[in-house]
Amino acid sequence: MRTIAALQLLSAAKLIAAISFPPLAALAQAQGDTTTAAPIQAFYTAPPNSSTSASSTQTVNINAATPTGTVTAPRTVTYTQTNYTPNPSVFSTACAEISSSYASRLSVYSSRASTDSTVIYPTRVPVRPREAWDCLYSIPINRELTLEFISGVSKYLQFQSTIEYLKNPPANSLQEPVDIIGSLEELAEQVRSGDIAHHIRFEVAFRKLLQRCHDGHLGLSFNSNSLIAFRGPFSLISISPDAIEKPKVYVETDLLEFGLDAAYVTKIDGYDVEAWIAEFADYGSSQSPDARYNDVFANRDPGSDGTFYTLYGWYPGKNTISLTYSNSSTHQYDYLAYARWNSALNWDGIRTGEDFYENIVLNPAYFQVSSSSQEGTVNRPAPEPKDPGALYHVHKHSDKKAKRQMRTGIATTTTSALRSAPTQDLPQLVYFNEPYMRHRVGPYVQDLNGIIGGYFLNDTLDTAVLDISSFSAADDDAEFEIEGFQAALTTFFAEASRRGSKKLVIDVRGNGGGLIALGFELYKQLFPAAAARSYYRIRTHEGAQIFATAAEALASDEATKDLVELIERIGLENINGDDTPEALEVALAINSGFSRQNTLDINAKTPKDLKTWIGPYTIDGLVNDTVSLLVENNFNFPLQGSDISGFGSRSEFANNPKPFEKEDILLLSDGTCASTCTIFAELLKREQAGISTVVMGGRPNDGPSAHVGGTHGSRVLTYANLLRNSRRVVQLYPPETEAQEEYLVENIPLALPFGFTYAAINFRDSIRPEDETATPLQFALEPADCRLYFSPIGFTDSVYLWGELSKLKWGTGSEFEGCAVGGLQKGEGSTGFVPDDPEVVEIVNYILQPMKTPA
Ligand SMILES: *[C@@H]1O[C@H](CO)[C@@H](O)[C@H](O)[C@H]1NC(C)=O
Ligand SMILES: *[C@@H]1O[C@H](CO)[C@@H](O)[C@H](O)[C@H]1NC(C)=O
Ligand SMILES: *[C@@H]1O[C@H](CO)[C@@H](O)[C@H](O)[C@H]1NC(C)=O
Ligand SMILES: CC(=O)N[C@H]1CO[C@H](CO)[C@@H](O)[C@@H]1O
């Protein structure tokens, strides 16, 4: 296979020095060859052949002409400010000013803390956006390390499952072509030539490149994002009077105060409001433009401030923004900025851009790969401060999963013999009639972590509702997520049966995914006897083949069998890195995603050998790429440490009756359904055709709109996880010659020179086995049967919304007079493709302005 083009940016010798390979080899050596692997020669001779958002917690009835609730408008009308180019003369003081604001803010608290032990330290201080940008702009660029970052990161990005599809996206996918590797080469050229002469401009350009791929599993958050955040002046909201008429854009607080009498926004910075938003939303993480549009706005269930407020974390290129209203007045508002910090990344000792570069930008672990006891720490551990508008909520859920797997270690790969009896006492798994999210009434039952709430609408056909805005707990340290989720569902469905409740609404609005196991669990509880088949494949470029070879060496048939026997003999809890390091290695390899041992092919057989699993197979037709065999999870290896209903210790569950008929189920989304949510939605769609779907919101174009519009990728892998695989390879196959070393350096991900708090790629593509083109579902946007715009009807009161939807679908007298597009009765569904963006509007891409600023 071809070598990665971006690698040719540097001479091989320089690359090796820069990438610091020797410490990796040394590490393997220091740890001894504890693993028995295929002879190294075989490996090399036959190498694999290829805020202050006060509004977010209020519930205000915008239905009423006179609103209830108190809202303080956070906006100030101020002076006019033109575009701003930092002047080098401020570079020496910009960071010092922010740092001293930080220090003085903290000192107030530490003096208070001396007398009051309950003082909670702040984690941010408001600063002027211009000063924040001056400081970021003053960070010097290190050309050599930036080029090393580019060539190093390209090896991570090669694992992005859709990298070739993105270059040449299928028709009707609404994805603009993005050539990631080609763009990296261009970035490298701009760095070399001096077009990019400031470090922050490189960071912004790199993040924008990934964001244009609209894959919520693909992203990277540099350390600098933890120190400075930019914000819009307030949140916007998009509301139609009746859910059918096209919506208009309002300032959230205006709408809350004046209802539909409020003046709506007609222009932003002089551009037509919809054109401006279309442009702005193009950096959102959903595949569907309608879901990206929804993400711009504040929402209530689940609560979010919207990207107009969070600005994707970017300096918007200037300090003010102007809005023109339907009453013809134009007002200018200040953007906001915050200096922020956490225990790992803070402003201590930062007086200059150089300090910022040394303390924050650089990855201290670059020249030495961390030891295996700290597996997964690519860079400094920097928990993101809690921020309601934080980017990458999709990733955070998935990352939680990764952490949890590390904590429980082998628990993720146990076998059926042992999985039943929990060794600890279970806590109370479900709660009844307790507060849940921000709904006016608590659900009949919810799990202990508040992941899912089950309601019965007393007044409306006794409809049952499952509200699930994420497939994982908000708390990173939550326990018993699967057990609690299972118990809540079982309790809920038993009660539905007792009541004779026949209709079910499933609300997945805002659901960006979470634990894969929970998506399957929900499906199996709904359809106990049905197969839960969800097929995927991975990209099998050279790096993936190397990793699969290493996984195979560790988790061979024999080693897997031994592991199973060992678990049966000594117990799951005794498999650990101290007493049974080899068994732990096998378990980790099985769970790495590169092993065939916990997969099944479309004939429900484990692929018989490495070659059968990894191929590489070529894809006929659309793209020129190589991929693995199409497989599904083997649920005899429980996901996330527990059995899914219908498998293993819960296999008898498959005999249960289904709690609802499929024509009595309505799936409600806002298009942002991503990751695990798409696995669940796809199971409903493929295996249970006939389930009705409703999607809320989207661009005011009266076209069909996708009900599942987030990333369809079915597993995310963090850079930490990929680096762990690299370490495994080097330990198994320490290179013996320079050529071998070079081969590895050219093909596997290694430490990167710049630190980041989060980075990941989409690893698995979901594929329908019956699709002859085998196109990843990322590129299939399928319209909901019924589309409704957001309207005051139920906007702040989901219980009410569910009732009205239930009447629309199954009863009479709904407040909704039908759907804006499509319908919910038989044969009324939307058909056709989701329409493309509105006519291309020639507007200045203000987002790119800072990029074009002469250095
Ligand atoms: C027009 O509407 C805006 C936004 O609600 C408001 O701030 C402004 O005062 C209004 N102007 C007039 C003249 O009514
Ligand atoms: C249904 O009625 C019960 C009993 O009065 C109440 O606790 C519950 O909150 C009601 N549910 C809804 C969704 O209104
Ligand atoms: C596909 O990629 C391979 C490897 O880069 C290249 O040799 C081949 O020419 C490409 N084929 C097509 C049809 O583009
Ligand atoms: C079940 C659960 O986690 N409930 C929590 C919901 O959020 C409120 C407010 O943060 C908590 O007090 C509850 O414990």
Automatic annotation (TrEMBL):
> What species is this protein from?
Orbilia javanica
| The protein's name | Tail specific protease domain-containing protein
One biological process term in Gene Ontology: proteolysis
Tell me which UniProt keywords the record has, alphabetically.
Answer: Signal
Stretch forming the signal peptide: 1-18
Record domain CPAF-like PDZ: where: 230-340
- Domain named Tail specific protease: which ranges? 463-691
Output one GO MF annotation.
Answer: serine-type peptidase activity
